[in-house]
Amino acid sequence: xxxxxxxxxxxxxxxxxxxxxxxxxxxxxxxxxxxxxxxxxxxxxxxxxxxxxxxxxxxxxxxxxxxxxxxxxxxxxxxxxxxxxxxxxxxxxxxxxxxxxxxxxxxxxxxxxxxxxxxxxxxxxxxxxxxxxxxxxxxxxxxxxxxxxxxxxxxxxxxxxxxxxxxxxxxxxxxxxxxxxxxxxxxxxxxxxxxxxxxxxxxxxxxxxxxxxxxxxxxxxxxxxxxxxxxxxxxxxxxxx
Length: 241
What we know:
Elements: H1 2-22, H2 43-50, H3 52-55, H4 70-75, H5 78-87, H6 107-118, H7 142-152, H8 154-157, H9 173-178, H10 181-190, H11 211-222
Helix pairs in contact: 2-6, 5-6, 7-11, 10-11
């Protein structure tokens, strides 16, 4: 009987020794569970990783549109926001984020971003004003667009749109190479509140700019865009070594 007790006692000692080691000082604790990147659907995380760099923390604006702006949210519906997030905007700095378009985000993550951005909308902040539609409905008239520019924009951007005392050039080749016509239209309607640029109601006090006027001035601005971005722009000189 004594011989049988010895192996049992030895086994019990080994178990207790292992238990003591597992709680010994300095021993690393269990590793935190790491969630696969494609399983993250928390809006704040997704926005911070993919959007805040350009659109600013909390959608307050940065190098481009403030997504938290009530005018932007009044004109851009779910479909418009989803299209931009998922597919990007060709010819601009806005990339495609959906996996189906070469990006890194799943459909569920795209849906989470769209829902989160839309959650910032606060009805009533426009006090009953109806902004022009998000997308243009008709072609633009260039000559009339030049007149619209003179009326609504020249006081800030200068008579030739090359910059004034209050705002920078909006016909600069580098700028126009990085933005779409839709971006120009959105900016005319929503303004850039974080930069002090007014929305469609405030360029001329008591005289909101109309849908067609916006279409025309956007067409006029876009007509200054270089046909082949990246090549020497008009007026530039070739430099020879």
